[in-house]
TrEMBL record:
Sorted UniProt keywords: Coiled coil, Nucleus
UniProt subcellular location: Nucleus
Keyword Nucleotidyltransferase: no
Name of this protein: c-Myc-binding protein
Length: 103
């Protein structure tokens, strides 16, 4: 009998913890939203994840960002190369001016 009370006490503590953390309210509101859906989603777990903010970005958004990142990396590499070439040209002009000044 004592074991039963101990586990009941632990359950009650855990329930209070979930309540205090707002977990019960969040889950209840998401489950109510699912219940009130006219057309139930084919994947209820995805619905819960989406409404709890756990689903992450959509695959199309990830692909769009990946392509944008690749384009920006290519632009960065072009600009670094252009910067290097311009620095070399500047050094050539500076050394030519120094030679002209010493002659």
């Amino acid at each position: 009998m004592a074991h039963y009370r101990a586990s009941e006490s632990r359950r009650e503590q855990f329930r209070r913890y979930l309540e205090k953390a707002g977990v019960l309210d969040s889950l209840t509101s998401v489950l109510v939203a699912l219940y009130e859906e006219n057309e139930k989603p084919s994947n209820a777990l995805d619905f819960l994840k989406h409404h709890l903010g756990l689903s992450g970005p959509a695959p199309a958004e990830v692909e769009k960002l990946r392509l944008e990142m690749l384009a920006l990396q290519q632009q960065y590499e072009r600009l670094v190369e252009e910067n290097r070439a311009l620095k070399n040209r500047l050094l050539q002009y500076e050394s030519a001016q120094e030679e002209g000044a010493t002659q």
